[in-house]
Fold these 4 entries.
Entry 1:
Amino acid sequence: MESLELRRHVTIGQYVPTGSPLHRMDPRFKLVAFVALVVAVTFTGSYLGNVALLALMGGLILLSRVPARYVLGGLRPALPVLLLLAALQVLLYTPEFTGGEGCVTLFRAWFVHSTTCSVKLAIVSAARFVELLVLTSLLTLTTTTTGLAHGVEHLFAPLQRRFGFPAHELALTLTITLRFVPTFAEELERLIKAQVSRGADMGGASWWRALRRARALLPIMVPLLLGALRRAEMLVLAMEARGYVGGRGRTRLVELRSTPHDAVALLLALLAAAAILTVPWPW
Amino acid sequence: MDTRELVIEVRDLVYTHLRDTPFAVQALKGVDMEVWRGEAVAVLGPTGSGKSTLVQHLNGLLRPQHGRVRVLDYDLSDPNVDVRALRRRVGLVFQFPEAQLFERYVGDDVAFGPRQLGLSREEVRARVREAMEAVGLDFEGFKDRLTFTLSGGEQRRVALAGVLALRPEILILDEPLAGLDPAGRRRLIALLRRLKGERGLTLVLVSHDVDDVVLLADRCFVVADGRTVMAGTPRELFSHPPATLAEFGLRPPSIMTTMHALADRGIPVRRHCLTVDEAADELARALEGG
């Protein structure tokens, strides 16, 4: 049975308050820890290193007290792309491309060339994708958008002072983007329902008839874009009408205050990232 | 029993949005409703009472998680039910339907549904003409107009025509009058009445505005907090004291409030007038009598 509940799969940009330690962490510290872990994920190409990272992600999910099923639910829509990507990597990546010595050819015919290296690359890429998704989801699931924006603004403030980097504008753009992800999902769901109600056949055409499928999306994409433009215009008007001035001289209702706990948490994250990066994983 | 045909039957319907996620909301907790062919039924209730969730079950956009929904000969609890066939016979017009228009030209937008059915060019043209005339848009005059240059009220009628072009037997409208100016409302109310009268369409209207409902509905269901709490003709419904209605987030029609006020001041009028016309007659009678 088809389900038209799209929001079920949109976990990025949602905030789930559970009051966990991750939620209480100062967004500035959380962001730095987040970046450190993203770096660790990006530069870990070994099986064991990724096992360690996956375990770490599991621990973070537990710590956040957000249901694991919900956090991982964001994977569902990406699954077909992931599988396709893995298949291409396994079949087409030659040893020259994957690099590394000791690649054992598993299968070779015509242009298809599978080696232990390409299999490893496929598995590690998939693991990394999962880790990155968990990290980004957890960041937004445990941080309010305003918290995130203030954190970003604070972290970029030195750049702003030195080089005139638009930290506030960046933070504002980030807030608005994240804020509207669920709104878009909601609108998309509504539009699909409305078009289906007047005879549209969603996902009816076979996938190899790409053109027909793309055309079938028009009744959804056109109104969605129109709605987005209209909403953007309204947002600008509303901000202008209230005399919004960003950046310098703007005060806050809630000031960010860090505690020793935040420093400890950040230190732990940095240590974990450093450890995963420096351990010479055997395979 | 009588000879009328039961076209919609909802029994003890329960539905939770985003079930199994932290955002789960139980929208329906036990709704009952039945609709007979050819009548106009209103689903009344305050914002967030579950009205929209309820009507999305009626053309298979949502499937019952518990309870029973039967529409025409389709049992929506059956996972193999042909929802595409059902949706051709049950037209659903969403709130602010003008937001779903996408074609450059009015005629093309109305033709979207019929084209999806794989009908011939002539048949599509005939259906578009019929649907546009039904909503009071002149076919020759409007078919080549640019969709997005029309007024809001005209766009809404185009969207309505887009659903009517499927020739549904049951037409469901979610807040059809929201955001229209008084002239637009009057026009749409007249239009809906004509669809019901001339084409025998069964209407299900979702509304939170009682003033609209009394002009259109033969019967009403009041949904509050996910449950059917009252059912009956508008006259039966609004004979309840205002305090009882307020409990379910409803108020009497504006004109009835006026009549209550007059009666309270000792003017000998009947309180339970539903429409302005009825109240006018009542006042004339009272003035002549007095």
Note: Strands of chain B lie at 6-17, 25-36, 40-44, 66-71, 74-75, 90-93, 170-174, 202-207, 219-224, 227-232.
Entry 2:
Amino acid sequence: MAQTTAAPAVRLSSPTPPPRGQMSNVYASGRLGRWVPWAILGVSLIISLAVFALFQAASGGDFNVAGAIVLTGVLNGILIYVTALLVEGIRKAKDRLVTTLVSSAFIIALAPLISLFITVLSRGTERFDLQLFSESMRNVVGQGGGVLHAIVGTLIMTGIATVISVPVGLLTSIYLVEYGRGALARAITFFVDVMTGIPSIVAGLFAYALFSLVFGPGVRLGVAGAVALSVLMIPVVVRSSEEMLRLVPNELREAAFALGVPKWLTILKVVLPTSLAGITTGVMLAIARVIGETAPLLVAAGFTQNMNYNPFEGRMQSLPVFVYSSYVSQGTDAQAYLDRAWAAALALILIVMALNLIARIVARLFSPKLGR
Amino acid sequence: MSKRIEVKDLNVYYSKFLAVEDVSLTIEPRSVTAFIGPSGCGKSTFLRTLNRMHEVIPGARVEGEVLIDGDNLYGAGVDPVLVRRNIGMVFQRPNPFPTMSIRENVLAGVTLNNRRISKSAADDLAEKSLRGANLWNEVKDRLDKPGSSLSGGQQQRLCIARAIAVSPDILLMDEPCSALDPISTLAIEDLIEELKSEYTIVIVTHNMQQASRVSDRTAFFNIAGTGKPGKLIEYNDTDTIFTQPTVQATEDYVSGRFG
């Protein structure tokens, strides 16, 4: 009888077995309680802690944290597979094993991100004060100083890059989706793909070469940095808005045509509003992609310690370049430079986060209303 | 406003493929004409040529003439946009604009064309069109809700309201009830009966009972086989088509012996 073979595991299964004499449900099988996976995880953790504590006691040295975590993962996988196999059968056992694997993969993928964020947060808060946001680095050699010039530079250059890239990218994707046929459309798609793969330093060199043709060699301008960024941004905008425009059902275009609406008005008033949320998200992702670029800005916009609000004159600082340059050339008071670099990195991350947050809000506001 | 449609020797091509061959028929104003026939026989394609909507599909082209009260749709210098403003169309699947409210959907034909309209005139137009589509009583308290919040049948009547809001001369309907339940279908059939007094209506349907219920005249289309062009087999009063068809294929089709 199945009831007796499963007897040792009955303690683990949460539903009570059917009373004696009553027919058992043919669809029912043993089930692990909700707490069991967590308990197994705890047991694995305790065992591996104990093992590595023994190692430490035997050989001396530090406690091996990484080893303990890896052993916990492996033990947890084996234990949960065996337990589920005994109580629930082979299908559920596989399910639990794969669940464990997927969760581990997720944690492994997340670990560097969280580690990075914690590191930046802990080191960046040292100098994350009002002075950081109210002063430039002009005439500062040791402590003090701020990154206002870099924040302003980043915002101005990324802003100009966005102003250049969004119209170009959006109009290109509209051409590809609504008008493009044949060889020209295929060529554009191909070159956009090629542009996606351009190394960012090449974009910086391109912008530098372009502006040095006009202003002579050695030119460093904020607007040159913006052009370099837009070279990187345009393909991302084209790709994401193209996907979004293709998602708009053809029926909506036909509905508008059948009302006697010309094609350009249909695109402007039906297709774009319907896909606006997705396009906004895509643009924000593109901004997030370029706002952290260092190399092209270093080449095209240079770096400076002074405030510069004018993108058309003189060098312009940006946050990534500021972080890079204060790390590379630490002055007399090295710690002050490092603290400022970390604080600037934190500011950059917060700016990107704020942009993503705005993008989500905008996407929610503009997304098609579904009523229910 | 209601106009006569005269089709003369019309061929429709998709690139090189001849989809509909040699159709000639005349549709009287203030009448309902049904197109019936098996799938793929070119009914919908032909219907779309009556307001040049087939041009949305790349490679589609037409030979022959479609005269609306004597004006050739395919004459030199004809703007398809102007054609579609006067010949409305309702599609198989209800397709209200998802970004717009019920009221905005009804007024879409005006607002999308950037025409100015006063608030009171817009209110009147919305009410008149929704009443015309038998939808006013169901939605008058929630005109600002999104159009997609309505049921399928209501959405389809919303699309009809949207189509008649631009006061077209002719209303083309491409299987307007095929996605709807019998109750909603009945509502739309009643509506077609009422709209007949003002518009020339052409309806494509797979439902022969529907054709016999709503239409005055019926056209039967058929194809000889896959890859062959669709042809107009028989065109006559609905009663005649369903009781004493002159062509054997029509009789087979309407009596359910094939198709």
Note: Chain A has two domains: 30-126, 133-366.
Entry 3:
Amino acid sequence: MSDNPFKIIRPTDQPPESLKKDVMGSVKFVMLILRFVQLFVADLPVSAFDKVRLIDPETGAPKKKN
Amino acid sequence: MFKSRAKKDLSRTDEELVSLLQKEMDADRFAVLYDRYSTKVYQKCVGMTRDRDLAKDLTHDIFLKIFVSLSKFDHRSKFGTWVYSVTYNYCLDTLRKNQRHREEDIDERTQEGLPTDTTSEAALLGLRAERLDHVLEQLDAMDRGVLLMKYEDELPVTDMMATLGIGESAVKMRLMRARERAIAKYHELYPDEP
């Protein structure tokens, strides 16, 4: 046995079984958020303005492209 | 197909798994790394915090931090060394928030002025295990951390420099002061002992 008292008091506990489930659940949630961000935020102008139509404020008619 | 891939992942090195995860996020692949390191990380957190509930929360947060920061791992060190560094620094940051920060006046004494304190090292390593445990419990998080790095994990000074992000003289100064404070705490807790 080691004479070093630091080695003697070293923790030998095992992580709780439920911890893996918690960690992997959080990892999957983070992946979902990152995918969402990739999908919508990374290309924000396209996703936000894809369906936007410019209209004339006076007549309400769609503006013609120049 | 999934089973054969999972089997293959088990035989891959940490660095190979990280490279694959850097290309594509995959929870099952990350679980292989979790299985390899969860015990080490949890035990380090228990050692640093002396609190199993807090250690559980910290282990959870550390693995999440590792997952999110995988893209920053540059393969210059071993993955295990990087995990150790993230674990140590995350524990320390959390404990610091709960403790009064003690300013380390590193410049107060120059490296040349450092005494060769083999006496304090011998005194520390000569303590009875249960008393040392009690002393460590009472110490400041930074002091406890550097002592565990040096005497429990037996990290060389160069690795401590990398983990703490400080120079050699600062590491030696922190170690020396941590030893001094540990011995002082021991005399405070056990005044009748030599």
Note: Residues 101-116 of chain B have pLDDT under 50 and may be disordered.
Entry 4:
Amino acid sequence: MSGIPLQSGLVVAGLLFGLGAAGVLFRRDLLFILLSLEIMTNAAGLAFVTAGALWGRPDGQVLFIFILAVAAAEVAVGLALVLWLYRRTGTLDVDRANRLRG
Amino acid sequence: MDYAFYIAAAAALAATLRAITASHAVHALLYFIVSLLAVAVIFLLLGAHFAAALEVIVYAGAIMVLFIFVVMMLNPGPRSVQRERHWLRPRIWAGPAVLAAVLAAELVYFAATGAGRSAGAGQVEPAEVGLALFGPYLLGVEMASVVLLAGLVGAYHLGWHLGRRPGGRETGEGEA
């Protein structure tokens, strides 16, 4: 593979991560915030795989598998919290969820 | 080879931008699945075939199904049928369909010409990944299993409280 996609792969990963971070900052719906977190972890995985391909080593893909496991665990707990918040408050607005007790 | 990468990267960025700016959760999920497929095409171009398969199966398959289940559980009642009909109009799914068609055309082009196979130095076979995973990274695998167990127990605990606690908005859940 030529050198150009390997460098720009990291740029694409950075842009995807920035989009995910913007989603976390700008959206107030908890479901969209979780989705943006997934975008960010996915971008980190893209950076790992790109770096692994740059060196021709399997370590990048190994770390991508770890990222998959972490994202799956995160999404399971996060979506359970989303359901809990909706049952409790009737909304997914995180600004309305400032009373964690009660 | 480069233009294929740039097409896939542009599709990933456009779909992600639409995903974080969509007003409805299902539209955002559709665009995010297209974004994941585009990233899988990028993995394929980088020579990481195993990671590309995992991206489609685990991310776009399993994790997104969890999101869709939650969106389904948040929209109960007879209004959801009308909303479902509203979602099936072409204006809703045309954008993701066009982006996915671009990615599918790239894949068909690779399969027809064998261009994706001529990778060279960057290509990493799945066997190498497996050897590294259960060789020097064995402790990491064990730690990942602990993280998954913690996620399982945490999600079960929260779901158990969802079924039991009184005073919730909906009471049709029963004993979990």
Note: The radius of gyration of chain A is 17 Å.
